[in-house]
Amino acid sequence: MTTLFYIEHNNGKISDQSLKAITATTNIEGDVHGLIVGSNISDAVAEASKINGLNKLLHVDDEAFDNVLAEKLTQVMLNVANDYDYFLAAATTTGKNVMPRLAAKLDVSQISEIVSVESADTFIRTIYAGNAIATVQTTDAKKVLTVRPTAFKAATTDSAECEVVNITAENIPSISEFIGEELTKSDRPELTSAKTIISGGRGMQNGENFELLDKVAEKLGAAVGASRAAVDAGFVPNDYQVGQTGKVVAPELYIAVGISGAIQHLAGMKDSKVIVAINKDEEAPIFDVADYGLVADLFQVLPELEQAL
Amino acid sequence: MKILVPVKRVIDPYVNIRVKSDQTGVETENVKMSMNPFCEIAVEEAIRIKEAGKAEEIIAVSIGNQSCQETIRTALAMGADRGIHVLTEERVEPISIAKILAKICESESPGLIISGKQAIDGDNNQTGQMLAALTDMPQGTFASKIEIDSEKVKVTREIDGGLQTVNLNMPAIITTDLRLNEPRYASLPNIMKAKKKPIDQKSPEDFGINVSPRVNILKVIEPPKRQAGIKVESIEELVEKLKNEAGVI
Predict the structure, then answer these.
(1) 3-state SS, one letter per residue, for chain B
(2) If we measure between CA atoms, which residue out of B193, B191, B154, B197 comes closest to residue B174?
(3) Cβ-based contacts of A176 with chain B (< 8 Å)
(4) Helix or strand run (H / E) with residue A19
(5) Which residue of A9, A96, A260 to mutate against B (max B Cβ within 10 Å)?
(6) Is the CB of B122 less than 8 angstroms away from the CB of A127?
(7) Helices B37-51 and B68-78 meet at what angle, rounded to 10?
(8) Which of A75, A233, B117, B145 has its CA 20 to 30 A from that of B231?
(9) Is the CA virtual torsion A60, A64, A66, A72 positive or negative?
């Protein structure tokens, strides 16, 4: 049994999501080979070669992969697919974009966002936004899986360097082209890797008021998130969204401000270690999952919180 | 140009899920069902493209039991022109759905296929990408903006950390994210009109596709319940607890 794991990177660093997800391979027998793509990424390749548990690293060094499009990356994996039994990636927007395309090319029924590997063919994943947990067993010979990063501890990158093999990208289709990326600029940590998150809901009333959260986040070194209601109301961009249809997070501390606690939001944050809820409605369902609840007007207590930190 | 829109019938997003006591799945008997919210966004986007004069016909497809006809009718009432219902009692996995849709693409030759990014029951997020693979079409997943320019379609995608824009050759497959649009409600006259729109009934066998599941569901359980904690009276008390009791700040 050999596993191919797709490793993401940005700005010369291996993605924290990939480091977490690769830990899922420790419960799968056999060697694990990493795949990393991009040109002029020697720092990322060097770091990836030291990921604990990796036996070999395939590197596509090609300018065509400075931006990763699903059509191209799928072909890279297909080119080497005969050598592998398992194909894994983190369930990031890249993993979710690419892996089903690969699965269909291999005629495999993919298993998405696993949170546990039970045996060679049996996995646990959540369905209905985390309101039910399914144990599933695949009958496909090859397995294509995406891994929910929050369910695993990040692998360390302090092993001896493994063998790095350059592979060439062949038969790459040109049916799509990259135009550009507009990344939200922030000095603060990414939502999915932050240790502390403070999120606002409809109770924030408008986008400007998110500054109150920003100020607290600054003090805590926290990321700022939002409920779907706040995103739908146009207060903040969609990449702030925590929940079933947004990002699934599990930080050490999650502070929900002006968030009522709809099922769809709880699905994205209820695995956080400590949950704090601040809401003026004491009946809000968010209090049912909060370790510490404060019934108060957020406009009064957020500045107090900033002061107290 | 034709636009094909696959639509899925799921438990209404505002219904509380109940796991069956025999752990075989989730209770769907006597539970309110609706069109998957991401599919509604897909139908809406197709209608807007047609209203802008860039498409002539919208075909809504649903795969599943007899009740899926209602979901197709909802799409027709919103503004789709005709439906295709692929009748099956099986639990159909994304790979099989994609295979059926690929066959429909062969006969209908749509210029665009717009689907939801995921269904809120299985949370698989696979069908659009799989259909793209099977038809060798480019894919614009998690779309928040779609601009059609004769032979190409520009798609703005919601990615971790921001937005990405790609240009796709048509025919192409697009999957919808939340911010793409706000779906309309069907008006009563349109609901009445929809009853007269045609729905073609097919079976998986008509397309030569075996839809038997490849993944067995061994067990479905409820997630562990989180216990409610305590109420604090002030920010001071909260900060003290977070520092000394929880040790997280």
Answers:
(1) CEEEEECCEEECCCCCCCECCCCCCECCCCCCEEECHHHHHHHHHHHHHHHCCCCCEEEEEEEECCCHHHHHHHHHHHCCCEEEEEECCCCCCHHHHHHHHHHHHHHHCCCEEEEECCCCCCCCCCHHHHHHHHHCCCEEEEEEEEEEECCEEEEEEEECCEEEEEEEECCEEEEECHHHCCCCCCCHHHHHHHCCCCEEEECHHHHCCCCCCCEEEEEEECCCCCCCCEEECCHHHHHHHHHHHHCCC
(2) B154
(3) 138-140, 166-169
(4) helix A16-21
(5) A96
(6) yes
(7) 30
(8) A233
(9) negative
Minimum distance, in Å, between the CA of residue B71 and any CA atom of chain A: 19
Q: What is the distance in angstroms between the Cα of A107 and the nearest Cα belonging to chain B?
A: 8
Tell me which residue has tokens 């891994």. Answer: A147
pLDDT score of A247 = 87
Closest CA to B169 of A69, A195, A122, A309: A69
**How confident is the model over A191-210, as a mean pLDDT?**
95
A111 touches A144 (CB < 8 A): yes
Which chain B residues are within 8 Å of A253, Cβ to Cβ? 242, 246, 248-249
Task: State the amino acid at position B88 in one-letter form.
Answer: T
ipTM confidence score: 0.95
Which of B11, B126, B147, B158 would best serve as a mutation to test chain A binding (most A beta carbons within 10 A)?
Answer: B126
- Residue A188: what residue type? R
Reported as a pLDDT band with limits 50, 70 and 90, residue A62 is very high
Asked if the Cβ–Cβ distance from B229 to A291 is below 8 Å, we say yes
- Looking at the complex, report in whole angstroms how far the Cα of residue A194 sits from the nearest Cα belonging to chain B: 13
Evaluate whether A98 touches A76 at the Cβ level (below 8 Å).
no
pLDDT one-digit tens code per residue, B60-87 = 999 999 999 999 999 999 999 999 999 9
**pTM strictly above 0.95:** no
Which two structure tokens, joined as six digits, stand for A205? 């009333």
- To the nearest whole Å, the CA of A105 is away from the closest chain B CA by 6
B136 with A175: Cβ contact below 8 A? yes
- Residue A130 to residue B223, Cβ atoms within 8 A: yes
- Mean pLDDT of all residues in A61-72: 93
| pLDDT confidence band for B179 (50 / 70 / 90) | confident
Encode pLDDT of A279-309 as tens digits. Answer: 999 999 999 999 999 999 999 999 999 999 9
A73 vs A93: CA distance, rounded Å:
14
Residue A184 predicted with pLDDT over 80:
no
**Three-state SS at A244:** coil
